[in-house]
Write a structure and sequence with these properties.
With about 260 residues, the chain is an alpha+beta fold. It contains eight helices and 14 strands.
Length: about 260
Amino acid sequence: MNERLDLAVRIVKEAAALALVFFGARETIEARTKGFQDFVSEADTAVERLVRDRLAASFPGETVLGEEMGGVADDAYWIIDPIDGTANFLRGSPLWGISLGFVRAGRPGLGVVAIPVLNDIYAAADGTGLILNGAPVSRHVPFEAVQVMSVGDSAAADAAEVAGLVVGLRHAGWVVESLRSTSIGLAFAARGIFDGHLQKLTTMWDIAGGVVLAREAGLDVRIGERADSDIPWVAAGTPSLMAAAEDLWSEIARESTN
C-alpha cells in the first residue's frame, strides 16, 4: 500500500503543477455550467485526463472513475475529483484542491489531497498515519478553546436543511466555515485547523481522498447514504463535535465508524 500511495502522490503532484498553470491563466480558459452554481472548466478535464493517463501507466487494468469523465465503480477503483472547488478556482480563491482516492468494497482506503496554491499535498492510507508533503505529521490543535469546523454546502443541497445544521452548530458553540471544497474541509480537519467537517449531501469523488486523511489523523469518520437514496453523506470530527452533531443530525448517530 505504501508503494501505491507513493505513486499516487507523484501523480497528484504532477496534476497540481498542471492545475496551477491553468489557475494562472484562469481568465482565458473555457468554463461551462453543469447546474445551479456548479461549474466545470477546461482545467477540470485536462487535470482529470492527466491523472487517468498516469494511473493507467502505473496501475494498468485498474478501474478509474472521475467526476468529469465518468466511469463505473466496481469492487476496487480509483476515483478522481480533478478540481474540487471549481467556483473558487475560477474566482481566484486559493481554496480549491485535487483529490484522488482508492476505494475497495465501498470503503476508501487510500487518499491524496493537494491544495496547489498552498503547495501542500496531504496523503494517507490504512495504517500510515497522516502525511504532509512527504513527512508524517500529527494532528495539532494549538488553541483547543477555539471551536471551528466546516459544513459542506453543495449546489444540490437543500439550503434550509444546511442552514438548520449551521444554526444548530453555532448555538452549540462552533464557528462554522463553508469552503465549498469538501476535500479541503476534510484535509483541514485532519491537520487540526478544523474540528471536523460535516456534509449532508456529497459524492464519493468529493470525499474518497479526504476521509482517509481524517481517519488516519485520528478523527471519528462516518459515511452513510441519505434515506431512500444512494446519495452519500459524510461526518468526520472530534468526539465533542460529533456529540454535538448527533443531537442535530440523527442519521449519523446510527452509522458505524468507517
